[in-house]
Write a structure and sequence with these properties.
Aminopeptidase, twelve-stranded mixed β-sheet, 10 helices, alpha+beta, 292 residues, 2 domains
């Protein structure tokens, strides 16, 4: 009998079946078990499941990160149901939900090594817009930096003008990240980082020539004494000094680890390598689909 794959919203009773086919997604397992309950009650999103005779054989989570921007994540298909149109059906449900919520753009990521997913995304109408490197540093120490200070609200317009000519901003597609979600970096987002004292600027000759934004959500999500860089901009010298200032801040605050996430831009990678960060040697590719 021909299988009929249907898509519906997830129910709490789907959890066990879903986790069974997510056990070995990666070499280390999967994170779906850690986020299932949160995703299921997400006030701005939905988990959709593809089912065969009402048994889950695929899932994806879609959420609205900010006005007009949808984020898709956690797409999984049971091995025996791959290449049977499951991903297309789940994607269709996500896009319909996103449009209903007023989203004009849908984004997601995939690993640079996952060529199968990249080909599938192209067929679904997504285009790669940015490439982000992942680096890590264990243990921070006091380091001297030059021309770096905490950003202030009065800097916002100057930073936005700086972005106009920034190669990093162009390569970043104007996005920043928290954990593994990417959003538009606009004035409101910048102000939030400044208010939380999580934005550093590199200023020379009375001109802003670099920016580093960081966040501590990783501490709560991964239960590690850590922070993550969310956006870095500047040439090698600017990035080097911004990184030194962040290391000093983390040392003073007793923060043990920094996850360095930045656009795949050579001056940034070289600066953070000199700072002692270890490169994962693979990147995260951000894909986007215009919905209107």
């Amino acid at each position: 009998m021909k299988q009929e794959i249907l898509v519906r919203e997830a129910k709490s009773s789907d959890k066990e079946a879903v986790l069974r086919f997510c056990e070995q997604t990666f070499e280390w397992g999967d994170y779906i078990a850690d986020v299932w309950d949160y995703w299921l009650t997400d006030p701005t999103g939905k988990i959709f499941v593809a089912t065969d005779k009402d048994t889950p054989v695929g899932i994806v989570h879609v959420t609205i990160l900010k006005t007009g921007e949808a984020w898709l994540e956690g797409a999984r298909t049971a091995p025996e149901y791959r290449r049977k149109g499951v991903a297309s059906l789940l994607n269709k449900a996500c896009i319909e939900f996103a449009v209903e919520k007023g989203a004009k753009i849908a984004r997601l990521i995939t690993d640079s090594t996952n060529v199968v997913a990249q080909a599938a995304l192209a067929k679904l109408g997504f285009s790669q817009i940015s490439d982000w490197a992942l680096m890590e540093l264990d243990g921070c120490r006091l380091e001297a930096s030059e021309n770096v200070r905490w950003a202030e609200k009065s800097d916002v317009d100057d930073v936005l003008r700086y972005f106009d000519g920034s190669e990093c901003f162009r390569k970043s597609a104007g996005l920043y990240t928290i954990l593994f979600r990417w959003m538009t970096l606009d004035s409101k987002a910048l102000e939030r980082f400044i208010e939380r004292k999580m934005a550093l600027v590199y200023e020379k000759s009375s001109k802003i020539q670099g920016l580093l934004m960081f966040d501590d959500t990783v501490k709560w999500a991964w239960r590690k004494n850590s922070v993550q860089t969310c956006y870095i901009d500047g040439n090698f010298i600017a990035a080097l000094n911004l990184g030194r200032a962040l290391k000093r801040h983390c040392y003073n605050e007793g923060i043990a680890k920094i996850y360095g996430t930045m656009c795949n831009h050579t001056p940034l990678l070289e600066a953070f390598s000199e700072l002692g960060f270890v490169n994962h040697n693979h990147t995260e590719l951000v894909y986007e689909k215009r919905l209107v």
